[in-house]
């Protein structure tokens, strides 16, 4: 059985990762357009770098929760039959043990060089303008996909949605495209579709089934039932 799982901010929020879906519409006190657009980076690179440096450092204060653990277990059983796609830029799926994770919006723990295009794993800070390991230019930025930029590996995701028998969305708002359209694509090609979310989302009506509750409860229960 081929399964595509999409995870969003809700699964990380249950580990204590602050997200811009929080009630005030801000992300750690910042407007999204001030820290998550290429225009913001051009206008105030030090503000944007400081923001992501803080988010990167804060990863060490959070841990995977039972939803991450259950998806790691699913990945171990299904192997290549599972494509785990996340909108999240944290590393909680990896730390839970998921064998492969497709970060469609990039990763906090990676940087890319705006001078030479080099991509590199990065656990430290970028605001101090360290030299690119590839070309030496002080031109590294967070390897995250900002609003107005194209998400990563869309071809691979669409191919998996076309082939999927089951598409499951966990903790996503159903409001941010292209991810919000995955359910319709999967369904159009014959997949069963299931939503697991804290509350009904903007996309709930597109799913065959929508279950409401904490991911830390719903995801392990669903994985248990799937693996029998
Ligand atoms: Zn470079």
Task: Summarize the topology.
Elements: E1 3-7, H1 9-13, H2 32-35, H3 38-43, H4 45-58, H5 66-78, E2 82-86, H6 92-96, E3 102-103, E4 106-113, E5 119-121, E6 140-144, H7 154-163, E7 166-170, H8 182-188, E8 192-197, E9 209-212, H9 215-227
Parallel strand pairs: 1-2, 1-7, 2-3, 7-8, 8-9
Antiparallel strand pairs: 4-5, 4-6
Helix pairs in contact: 5-9, 7-8
The structure holds zinc ion.
* Form type: globular
Instruction: Give the ordered list of helices and strands.
Output: EHHHHHEHEEEEHEHEEH
Radius of gyration: 18 Å
Largest β sheet strand count, sense and barrel closure? 6 strands, parallel
User: Whole-number average pLDDT?
Assistant: 94
Ligand kinds? zinc ion
Question: Strand fraction band?
Answer: 15-25%
Helix content: 25-40%
Extended strand count: 9
Q: Kindly report the spatial arrangement of strands forming the biggest sheet.
A: 3-2-1-7-8-9
Question: How would you explain this protein's 3D organization?
Answer:
The strands form two sheets. The chain has a six-stranded parallel β-sheet with strand order 3-2-1-7-8-9, sandwiched between helices. The protein has a three-stranded antiparallel β-sheet with strand order 5-4-6. It has helices at 9-13, 32-35, 38-43, 45-58, 66-78, 92-96, 154-163, 182-188, 215-227, and strands at 3-7, 82-86, 102-103, 106-113, 119-121, 140-144, 166-170, 192-197, 209-212. It is globular. It is 34% helix and 19% strand. It contains nine helices and nine strands. Strand 4 (106-113) and strand 5 form a beta hairpin. The chain is α/β, with parallel strands linked by helices and 228 residues long.
């Amino acid at each position: 059985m081929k399964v595509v799982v999409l995870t969003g901010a809700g699964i990380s929020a249950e580990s204590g990762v602050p997200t811009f879906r929080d009630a005030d519409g801000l992300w750690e006190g910042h407007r999204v357009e001030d820290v998550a657009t290429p225009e913001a980076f051009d206008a105030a690179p030090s503000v944007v770098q400081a923001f992501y440096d803080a988010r990167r450092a804060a990863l060490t204060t959070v841990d995977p929760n039972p939803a991450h653990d259950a998806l790691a277990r699913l990945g171990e059983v299904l192997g290549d039959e599972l494509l785990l796609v996340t909108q999240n830029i944290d590393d909680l799926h990896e730390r839970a043990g998921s064998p492969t994770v497709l970060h469609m919006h990039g990763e906090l723990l990676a940087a890319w060089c705006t001078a030479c295009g080099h991509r590199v794993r990065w656990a430290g800070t970028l605001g101090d303008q360290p030299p690119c390991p590839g070309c030496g230019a002080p031109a590294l930025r967070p390897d995250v996909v900002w609003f107005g930029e194209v998400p990563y590996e869309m071809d691979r995701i669409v191919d998996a949605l076309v082939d999927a028998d089951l598409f499951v969305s966990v903790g996503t708002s159903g409001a941010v495209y292209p991810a919000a359209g995955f359910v319709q694509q999967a369904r159009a090609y014959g997949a069963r579709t299931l939503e697991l979310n804290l509350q009904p989302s903007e996309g709930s009506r597109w799913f065959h089934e929508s279950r409401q509750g904490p991911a830390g409860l719903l995801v392990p229960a669903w994985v248990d039932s799937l693996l029998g």
